[in-house]
Write a structure and sequence with these properties.
By secondary structure, the chain is an all-alpha fold. The protein has one domain. Helices cover about 80% and strands about 0% of the residues. It is built from 22 helices and no strands.
Amino acid sequence: MDLLFVLAGIIALLILILKKINPMLSLLIVSVLTGLMLGLPLQKVMTSITNGIGSTLGGMVMVLALGAMVGKLAEDSGAAKKIVFVLIRIFGVQHIQWAVLLTGILVGIPLFYNAGFVVLIPLVFTIATAVKLPKLYVGIPMAAALSVTHGFLPPHPGPVALASIFHADIGKTLIYGLILSIPIAIVAGVFFPRTIIKIPAGVKSTADLDLKEEDGLPSALKSFIIALSPIFFIAAGTVGAALNINSLANHIFGFIADPTAALMLAIIITLIIQDTAVEKAMESCAEGVKSIAMIILIIAAGGAFKQILVDSGIGGQVKELTANMNVSPLFLGWLIAAALRVILGSATVAALTASGMVIPFVAAGASAELMVLAVGAGSLMFSHVNDTGFWMFKEYFNLTLKETFKTWTMMESLISVLGLGGVLLLNYFI
């Protein structure tokens, strides 16, 4: 019966979202309603909401804020654009998709999805026109790369929030995410568009690429340092700590592996090497945080809903219901997130809602880091008309609904399914 109440809460959440009610407010309203339907006293409902917000934001709010600052500095300094020009020159016309794909991954690490999309889409269109290729042929690699980083890699909001909820190691999550992201991005971003988009014979071999690089961009070395330093610190710290060299080294590696410390160091390095005045850089940092304020509030409200589900014991019921099923808990985490994604649209809301149901699987021994990736993969499944990303892709590329389903929706679903397969494969070997 309690599962029916949860379903009723999810339906109520869908209705509120369809009525254009702010997702944060929708989640808070549904948290109260679901808690009451599940038999929690009103005082307990409010206590659970407060605890859920505190426990979710406590471990991640600075990571999200500092990550937004790094991304905005990379955008405003021109580092993101410089990376595009460098990679295009390296790969050339013959391998233009690979250049755009790698650009999307490198730019997508510090920039959140929407920001990365807006920054790269004009350059994608310029490249497509210059090499006389369909915009989608060049654009899908960029979208796939950004989607993969959004779903699998810290410091993006979804993975960071899930890592906080599941008490997963951010460094391990990042390393596992990178192992998954690159091959998945290649399949969805390079090979997938080649199967659905026909290219006239001889176009790629005869076209010349003449991109006019803007003045005032930072050097290539500075651009790559700005974009990749957070990932370098987290990964290096995690690997270094695992080597267990000595006590002092372990303390140092443990410090730089902490995502808050890694991002703080990345900002300091960026301020030192970039040519922008400190005052202007601080304005960029402030704007970066402002741009994700609503995302942080949505995650906070999602944490409240998660806590309602946890305190009501619904996760335990899900676990009992699936106890006799010979199915991996990682698959169940992916399936629950995928179902919620199809229903609710927002990947972040779907992932946070699913987390409250799958926490018992982590407590029972499932890898917390792989559960982050499994739920993250599920939250990308079958993006359609209730997802803002669907409409952004449709309008920028001037597609019909049918064409958007054939390209964007199929690409997202492919990433989701491949992500599940990759998680299950990793679980077998580690």
